[in-house]
Design goal:
Its EC number is 3.5.1.28. This protein is α/β, with parallel strands linked by helices. 30% of the residues lie in helices and 26% in strands. The protein has two domains: 119 residues, Immunoglobulin-like; 235 residues, Aminopeptidase (3-Layer(aba) Sandwich), CATH 3.40.630.
Length: 399
C-alpha cells in the first residue's frame, strides 16, 4: 500500500501528456529584425515554435498593415504576446482562438511589407513556422483584398497570476570546480574563477528581479558533485544551472553551448544515484528508503518524463535568447551529455558552457565586464521567460 500511494502521488505531481493540440513554445519563438531598415522599416521574421507540425496559412491585411498567421489544432494556453522575444519590434501583437480548430496570430506591422517566404521545418519533437517579411513601398503593398477584420473574436491577452519571484521561484547556480580543482587553465586564468565571477553577477541580476538564488559555492572552495545536487534539492530548486568554461585543443571548439541530460543513460544514472546518494535524497518530496533498486529506478525514470522536456524547453529559451542577442554559440548549441550535475531526476537541469577558456575570443569575452553583462541579461531573461511559461502550464493543469 505504501508503494501504491507513492506512485499515485507521483502521478498527480507529474502528469503525463496524452494526444493534445500543438502548443506554442514561446521560449523558442520570436520576432526578429533580419537586416537594417536604412531609414525605413526593418526586414522582419516571425518564428513560431510549436510542439508538433500543424497546417497553417499566412497572409497580409490592411487598415493598419498586419501579418496574419492561422494555425490549426494549436493551443496558445496562457502564453502572453508581450513575452514574445522581439515583441517591441511591432506596434502590437495578439493571438488566440478565432474559430473551431484554428488559432490566429496577428502582428501589426511598423510599415508596409510583403511576405518574402514562409515555411515550416518539422523535427522529432518540435516544429517551427517561419514567415519572412520584406519592407516595400506603399504602392507595392498587396494585402488580401477581401480579408475580414483580423482581430475579430481574439481574446484579450491572459494575465498570469504572479511573477516568478512572487511564488518563491528558486534558481540554483552551480559554478563548476573550485578549491583544489581549478578546472581548465589558460593564459593565467582558471575556469573556476571565471565562472564564479559570472555566477555572482548573475545572482545579483536575478535577485533584483525577485528570484531566489542558491549557489552551490560562492567562494573558491571545492564542492563534491553529489553535494551540488543535494544542495539544489534541499533548496527546493525549480531550475539548476551548472556553469563552466572548459578547454579543448586550439580550434576545436568556441562559443557557448548548453547541455541537457541524455535520456539513453537513464538506467545507468539511476544505478549510480542509488549507490551514491541516500534513498531520501533522490526525489524531492519522496522518501525512497526501504525500496529496492528496481522500484527506485522506475520511479526516477517516471519523474524524468516530466523534468526532461522541461530541461530541453529551458535550453531552447536560453539558446534562442543568445542567438537573438548576438552571443556567439557553438555550431551545435544544444547537446546531450551524461554529466553528473545533470543526473537529478526531479529538477530541470542544464549545464551552460559560457565559452571555452582555450579559445582566445571566448576567454576575452569572459574577462570583459560588458560581455558578461550582456550574457547575464540573456540568461536572466531566459530564466524569467521560462518561469512564466512554466507557471502558465501549471495553471492550465489546475483548470
Amino acid at each position: 500500500m505504501k508503494v501504491l500511494a507513492l506512485i499515485l502521488s507521483l502521478l498527480v505531481a507529474f502528469p503525463v501528456w496524452g494526444n493534445e493540440p500543438a502548443r506554442l513554445d514561446i521560449g523558442g519563438s520570436a520576432l526578429v529584425a533580419t537586416g537594417r531598415g536604412w531609414g525605413g522599416p526593418q526586414p522582419l521574421e516571425l518564428r513560431l515554435s510549436l510542439t508538433k507540425a500543424v497546417p497553417y496559412r499566412s497572409y497580409l491585411v490592411d487598415g493598419p498593415p498586419r501579418l496574419v498567421v492561422d494555425v490549426k489544432d494549436t493551443d496558445f494556453g496562457l502564453a502572453r504576446p508581450q513575452d514574445l522575444f522581439g515583441a517591441d519590434l511591432a506596434p502590437a501583437i495578439r493571438w488566440g482562438p478565432y474559430r473551431e480548430g484554428w488559432s490566429r496570430v496577428v502582428v501589426e506591422l511598423p510599415g508596409t511589407y510583403r511576405i518574402d517566404s514562409a515555411g515550416q521545418q518539422a523535427r522529432a519533437a518540435l516544429s517551427q513556422i517561419t514567415v519572412a517579411l520584406a519592407p516595400v513601398a506603399a504602392q507595392d503593398f498587396a494585402p488580401r483584398p477581401s480579408a475580414t477584420a483580423a482581430l475579430r473574436d481574439l481574446p484579450e491577452p491572459a494575465e498570469l497570476p504572479a511573477q516568478p519571484g512572487d511564488e518563491g521561484f528558486t534558481v540554483v547556480l552551480d559554478p563548476g570546480h573550485g578549491g583544489f580543482d581549478p578546472g581548465a587553465l589558460a593564459e593565467g586564468e582558471s575556469e573556476a574563477n571565471l565562472v564564479l565571477v559570472f555566477s555572482l553577477e548573475l545572482r545579483a541580476a536575478l535577485q533584483a528581479r525577485g528570484i531566489t538564488v542558491e549557489m552551490t559555492r560562492s567562494d573558491d572552495s571545492f564542492v563534491a558533485l553529489e553535494r551540488r545536487m543535494t544542495t539544489a534539492r534541499q533548496a527546493r530548486g525549480d531550475l539548476f544551472i551548472s556553469l563552466h568554461a572548459d578547454a579543448l585543443p586550439q580550434g576545436q571548439a568556441a562559443g557557448a553551448t548548453v547541455y541537457v541530460w541524455n535520456p539513453a543513460a537513464d538506467d545507468r544514472a539511476a544505478e549510480q544515484l542509488s549507490l551514491r546518494h541516500g534513498r531520501d535524497d533522490l526525489v524531492a518530496g519522496a522518501d525512497l528508503t526501504g525500496h529496492d533498486d528496481a522500484l527506485t529506478g522506475v520511479l526516477m525514470d517516471f519523474v524524468r518524463t516530466d523534468t526532461q522536456p522541461r530541461s530541453e524547453s529551458f535550453a531552447r529559451w536560453l539558446t534562442s535568447r543568445m542567438s537573438l542577442m548576438g552571443i556567439g554559440m557553438h555550431e551545435r548549441p544544444v547537446q546531450r551529455a551524461t554529466y553528473s550535475v545533470l543526473k537529478s531526476p526531479d529538477i530541470p537541469s542544464v549545464l551552460l558552457e559560457l565559452g571555452f577558456i582555450s579559445d582566445h575570443d571566448d576567454r576575452a569575452n569572459l574577462l570583459n565586464p560588458l560581455w558578461r553583462g550582456r550574457m547575464v541579461q540573456v540568461v536572466s531573461d531566459a530564466i524569467v521567460g521560462w518561469a512564466r511559461d512554466e507557471a502558465a502550464r501549471a495553471a492550465m493543469l489546475r483548470q
